[in-house]
Write a structure and sequence with these properties.
The chain is mainly beta. The chain has 3 helices and 51 strands. It is globular, with a radius of gyration of 28 Å. The N and C termini lie far apart (about 60 Å).
Length: about 575
């Protein structure tokens, strides 16, 4: 029997099994069984999964060759690719019913030779990822009303399947569920559907039938799934539509105006991402779920701004508390935005690739700026981070080429673990930090995390301050600096962080002093112009792949750590 010490569990995810096998009882509280968690564990004979688990990742039990008994509770809503492939249970023909493998109430896999009609047994609650994929002789399938979950690619490439009716017990149809079902000409969807993934019905007979595209927009009944990228001008979603799919209008670059009727109940994510010419978003009055204000699409109950456009003004009436992931992404006509103090959360990439955005006023209520929020905002010249912000995530200001001034309030703490905060920002000439900030300081227009004496962001001159308060070059501190040709690391530095000089493609010369003892992984990745690097004997630790996609020769002393590292990793070296 297993015990708790046999499992590596992080945040509810069972990442790894380290026991000796036999009968396994997974502990209560586990919510997900991770990818490869038990794969190739030859001595496992049975496994009991508790009802706290909702997801089993791909290959979780793959090739557990003695695993003959499996108990899966109905709480499991998702079983990913090959989760039980190669197990004794999978290979035992007695467990297959009419060419279909079930584990409890979960349909795991259909034999690719299955033909004609398949009637899924009553009581089945889940159809796993890839379950019928490639069943090219399957002509029809009866899905009972007990089924609540259909997996990704579940019926992909069922080339003889002609029709499908989804029961009203199902709320989500994931990506590629019926993709490339070339003869699928009849699709019936219930009003219970609240989410449809990309490509769910792509390249089916229904999809390829021009009569199902109305003015360049693909509908299945009252569900709007996809617009052709050539859609232009003004477009009004047809009356009676209840659902607009994720990325439905993705990259419709000539679309200028969209109007949404009051019948729409579900809008699934970034429906207008990359619509660079979109100037107007309006929702018909009387819609119980959504409304528009200031040319913004807002989910009324949750106070979430789902999508914006070039002319958007975020309302300052308390109706918006959250900005959804990628809401304004690619709005190239957006020049200024004021985020009112009612907004407490801004999700990642919200304003990414707004190439002409010049001015941003942040809410004084947000605590975190998520990853890539302003990535690619090429004309954003300055940013003021309010006192309320305590955390900044990965890539927030990446490729903001003209960003020259950063003002940081009192609340912001360590940014050093985020990495690549300002990749490619070569115009930074002024960094000001509130005197009340206890964790960050500006030294010679560089940002320093003083708790660890770590350089986080470097000014436009690319110089590292010679200051005893700086002993480490932080993660990705110089990343993407195309104008950087020479760097002299001062003697106050003892550590060069992960990816510190990554993608500095014109960097030709780096001088590393004997004070340095550690160089992090991928420190010089893609530094194509760095032909040689002298690594002193004081360096006793070097991370993996420091010269990946570069052709650098290590110059070092014989039998030094750098010499041994170069030989082990088949890197060219010269002995001095």
């Amino acid at each position: 029997m297993s015990n708790i010490n046999d499992f590596v569990i992080e945040d509810g995810v069972l990442e790894e099994y380290t026991g000796k096998g036999g009968k396994i009882v997974i502990p209560e509280g586990v919510t997900c069984i991770g990818r490869y968690a038990f794969s190739d564990c030859d001595e496992i004979t049975s496994v009991a999964i508790p009802d706290t688990v909702t997801k089993i990742e791909g290959s979780a039990f793959e090739n557990c060759t003695k695993l003959a008994s499996i108990t899966i509770p109905d709480s499991v809503k998702e079983i990913c690719f090959d989760a039980f492939a190669g197990t004794r249970y999978f290979k035992d023909k007695k467990n297959w019913q009419n060419d279909v493998l079930y584990i409890g109430n979960h349909l795991i896999k259909a034999n690719k030779t299955i033909s004609g009609s398949c009637i899924i047994k009553d009581g089945t609650v889940l159809i796993a990822d890839d379950a019928f994929s490639g069943c090219k002789m399957l002509e029809s399938v009866n899905i009972p009303n007990s089924v609540k979950s259909i997996g990704s690619s579940a019926f992909q490439n069922c080339s003889e399947l002609t029709e499908v009716t989804i029961p009203d017990s199902v709320t989500n149809i994931p990506s590629y569920a019926f993709n490339f079902c070339e003869k699928l000409a009849s699709i019936t969807l219930p009003d219970s559907i609240t989410s449809i993934g990309s490509g769910a019905f792509g390249y089916t007979a229904y999809y390829n039938d021009a009569s199902n595209w109305q003015n360049g927009v693909f509908y299945v009944g009252n569900f709007l799934l996809k617009a052709q990228s050539t859609l232009s001008g003004k477009y009004a979603v047809k009356d009676g539509t209840i659902f607009i799919a994720y990325s439905a209008f993705d990259n419709c670059n000539e679309l200028t105006s969209i109007s949404i009727p009051k019948s729409v109940k579900y809008i699934d994510g970034n429906v207008f991402s990359g619509c660079s010419s979109l100037d107007s978003i309006t929702v018909e009055e009387g819609n119980p779920v959504y409304h528009s204000s200031g040319y913004c699409l807002i989910k009324t109950g949750s106070k979430t701004l789902l999508s914006g456009c070039n002319n958007s003004v975020i309302p300052n009436d308390g109706s918006v508390e959250k900005i959804y992931h990628g809401a304004f992404r690619g709005c190239v006509g957006l020049k200024t935005i004021v985020i009112p103090d009612s907004v407490v959360e801004i999700e990642g990439s919200s304003f990414a690739d707004c190439k002409n955005l010049e001015s941003v006023t942040l809410s004084k209520s947000i605590k975190k700026i998520e990853s890539y929020t302003f990535g690619g905002c090429e004309k954003l010249a300055e940013i003021s981070i309010p006192d309320s912000v305590t955390e900044i995530d990965y890539g927030v200001f990446n490729d903001c080429n003209t960003l020259s001034k950063i003002t940081i309030g009192s609340g912001l703490q360590d940014m050093s673990e985020s990495g690549e905060i300002a990749k490619g920002c070569e115009s930074i000439s002024f960094i000001e930090v509130s005197a009340k900030n206890e964790h960050l300081r500006s030294i010679d227009n560089c940002l320093v995390f003083i708790d660890e004496n770590k350089l986080v962001i470097v000014g436009k001159d690319g110089k590292i301050p010679e200051d005893k308060n700086i002993t480490k070059i932080g993660k990705y501190a110089f990343s993407g600096r195309k104008g950087l040709k020479t760097i002299v690391v001062p003697s106050n530095i003892t550590e060069i962080g992960v990816g510190a000089f990554s993608e500095c493609e014109n960097l030709e010369s780096v001088s590393i002093p004997e004070s340095v003892t550690k160089i992090g992984s991928q420190a010089f990745i893609r530094c194509k112009s760095l032909k040689t690097l002298l690594i002193p004997s004081t360096v006793k630790e070097i991370g993996s792949d420091i010269f990946m996609y570069a052709n650098t020769t290590v110059v070092c002393k014989e039998n030094s750590y750098a010499h041994k590292y170069a030989k082990k990793n088949k890197i060219k070296f010269e002995i001095i």
